[in-house]
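Retry 2 of 3 after timeout on previous attempt. Resubmitting structure tokens to design endpoint.
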């Protein structure tokens, strides 16, 4: 029997990690989890329930989270991203979401999970770890195009400010900050097409599998 293939893909907002991770999941026929959606759902539900993302409202939302809500397009908005990063600072929220993510990683033949702490906290024994990044300007432009495509009316300069704030909050928080695992491989997608990024990611995984 071949060992399960768990692939951890971490990186900051709009770095291309979702595209890289879905490409790898398709290539290897593995289930894929976008862990950011869990935090987005918690942030949105906490705000809907109590009008604000507090530790109590976010923890309650995380404990009762039904994975069916992850398909809601409302989770893909700019506002949901902001609420997610507010909810993600609370250790009790992270603890409540940990089991779901660990179980996802432990299923059958493996899994691909993307997020901020997959290689460091959720799946430290993952077979392959990628840290996907790009310059803040490139990431802002990608996110801006994505949001416009979804029908949101947004200014590029505001998205760049969002991205910088989110980087600061995600990297500066005490609980599971955005960190590159010691054994992760850096993939900078600033100057890469989707195909080039996918190919570079595949090579990183193949190298890790051969070790
Ligand atoms: O990846 P995405 O932009 O959807 O994530 C939204 C927010 O959720 C991030 O800015 C981060 O604060 C939080 N998050 C996290 N840990 C993860 C995934 C997302 O803290 N594994």
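Retry 2 succeeded. Sequence:
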């Amino acid at each position: 029997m071949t060992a399960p293939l768990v692939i951890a893909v971490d990186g900051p907002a709009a770095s291309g990690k979702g595209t890289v991770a879905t490409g790898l999941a398709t290539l290897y026929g593995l289930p894929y989890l976008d862990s950011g959606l869990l935090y987005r759902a918690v942030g949105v539900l906490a705000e809907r329930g109590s009008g604000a993302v507090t530790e109590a409202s976010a923890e309650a939302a995380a404990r009762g989270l039904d994975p069916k809500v992850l398909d809601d397009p409302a989770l893909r908005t700019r506002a949901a991203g902001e609420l997610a990063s507010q909810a993600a600072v609370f250790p009790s929220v992270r603890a409540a979401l940990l089991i779901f993510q660990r179980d996802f990683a432990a299923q059958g033949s493996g899994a691909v999970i993307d997020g901020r702490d997959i290689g460091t906290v959720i799946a430290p024994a993952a077979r392959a770890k990628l840290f996907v990044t790009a310059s803040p300007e490139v990431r802002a432009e990608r996110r801006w195009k994505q949001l416009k495509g979804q029908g949101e009316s947004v200014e590029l300069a505001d998205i760049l400010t969002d991205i910088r704030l989110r980087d600061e909050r995600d990297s500066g928080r005490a609980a599971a900050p955005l960190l590159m695992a010691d054994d992760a491989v850096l993939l900078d997608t600033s100057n890469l097409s989707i195909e080039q990024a996918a190919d570079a990611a595949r090579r990183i995984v193949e190298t890790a599998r051969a070790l």
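Attempt log closed. The pocket of cytidine-5'-monophosphate is lined by residues 13, 35-36, 39-40, 81, 84-85, 88, 115-117, 166, 170 (CB under 6 Å).
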